[in-house]
Amino acid sequence: MNLYQNDDTTIQIDALNMLKLKKNILLKGPTGSGKTKLAETLRHELDRPMHSINCSVDLDAESLLGFKTIEIKGGESVITFVEGPVIQAMKQGHLLYIDEINMAKPETLPILNGVLDFRRTITNPFTGEVITADDNFAVIAAINVGYVGTLPMNEALKNRFVVIDMDYISGETLKNVIRTQTLLEDETLIEQLGKFNKDLITMAEQGQISEEASSIRALLDLCDLTTIMPVERAVKRAIVDKLEDDREQQAIINAMELTF
Ligand SMILES: Nc1ncnc2c1ncn2[C@@H]1O[C@H](COP(=O)(O)OP(=O)(O)OP(=O)(O)O)[C@@H](O)[C@H]1O
User: Fold this and answer.
1) What per-residue confidence (pLDDT) applies to 104?
2) Which of 9, 42, 43, 216 for mutating ligand 1's site (highest number of atoms within 8 Å of CB)?
3) What ipTM score was computed for the predicted complex, to two decimals?
4) Which parts of the sequence belong to the AAA+ ATPase domain (predicted)?
5) Does residue 157 have a pLDDT over 90?
6) In angstroms, rounded to a whole number, what is the distance separating the alpha carbons of residues 65 and 70?
7) Distance CA 24, CA 20 (A)
8) Could you tell me if the CB of 144 is within 6 A of ligand 1?
9) Which of 1, 50, 131, 251 is the most exposed place for a label (fewest CB within 10 A)?
10) Residue with CA closest to ligand 1 atom 28
11) Domain segments of the chain: what residues?
């Protein structure tokens, strides 16, 4: 398994120890900065299953807690409750990963307030069952922080987390991630693509291009594509054509012409 890598080893060590202290951790960083990768790495180190929830406007109590359904048992129809990710993780002492927690509707997540504070308890509104989390239950949430403005997170919710600030990796660590997670083996090109990504990050910080263009996810796609097509076309397919804005596209083409 490819694990999370960072020169700053305190990120992973602190996250792991905080989970062991039963703190809920909030990974805060730009898109493609390795938040999901870090969560998977922590799951691997703790050797516990992880349930994931992706927050969107359609996230509701049912998708968190579960829903009632009718089953036919011995010719009779009975109402049963299918447990959702929160209830399963609490009862079984698993990890719960809540991605893009700032994107949920404001009324949905307060359901979890008691789960996320010292009570570690919830009364399931659909069944009346009171559930207290197993000792091994722990929560990792992630929030995408853009350079240009981010949906703020509800204060009461934020209070229930300790925060790990994440940023893009660079230099030798980034080259190692390219070597382990892509098909690219040409060291000269790996070096050049690392520098190109650094330029794109600077441009994103200055607001010239959107962060999806500078994300490590886009870079890894780009590296794979360079093994089957010329680098100029790979940049177009992996990065330029994803953007809507002509000026952003042109800025990336200019940076590419300077680098390759
Ligand atoms: N520090 C890192 N170590 C190892 N892999 C990384 C690292 N940073 C990014 N990656 C790789 O980059 C890609 C994007 O990372 P990941 O999906 O974890 O980002 P994310 O922050 O969760 O993004 P998003 O917020 O957009 O969901 C993955 O393929 C991941 O393996």
Assistant:
1) 86
2) 216
3) 0.98
4) 21-170
5) no
6) 17
7) 10
8) yes
9) 1
10) 217
11) 10-165, 171-259
Task: Give the total residue count for the chain.
Answer: 260
Question: Per residue in 48-75, pLDDT tens?
Answer: 999 999 998 788 999 999 999 998 888 8
In one-letter notation, the amino acid at residue 251 is: A
| 214 alpha carbon – ligand 1 mean position (Å) | 12
Name the maximum alpha-carbon separation found in the chain.
Answer: 73
| 170 Cβ inside 6 Å of ligand 1 | no
Distance 35 CA to ligand 1 centre (A): 6
**In angstroms, what is the span from residue 182 Cα to ligand 1's centroid?**
13
Q: Which helix (H) or strand (E) holds 82?
A: strand 76-83
Six token digits for residue 237: 């397919």
- Cβ pair 141, 103 in contact under 8 A: no
Question: Phi and psi at residue 7, in whole multiples of 5°?
Answer: -60, -35
Q: Say what the pLDDT of residue 70 is.
A: 93
CA 85 to centroid of ligand 1, rounded, Å: 23
Tell me the CA–centroid distance for residue 142 and ligand 1, in Å: 12
- The separation between CA 198 and the C-alpha centre of its own chain, rounded to angstroms, equals 21
CA 188 to chain CA mean position, Å: 30
Question: pLDDT digit string (tens) for 68-119?
Answer: 999 888 889 999 999 999 999 999 999 999 999 988 888 888 899 999 999 9
CATH 3.40.50.300 fits 10-165, yes or no: yes
Number of C-alpha atoms within 13 angstroms, CB side, residue 193? 33
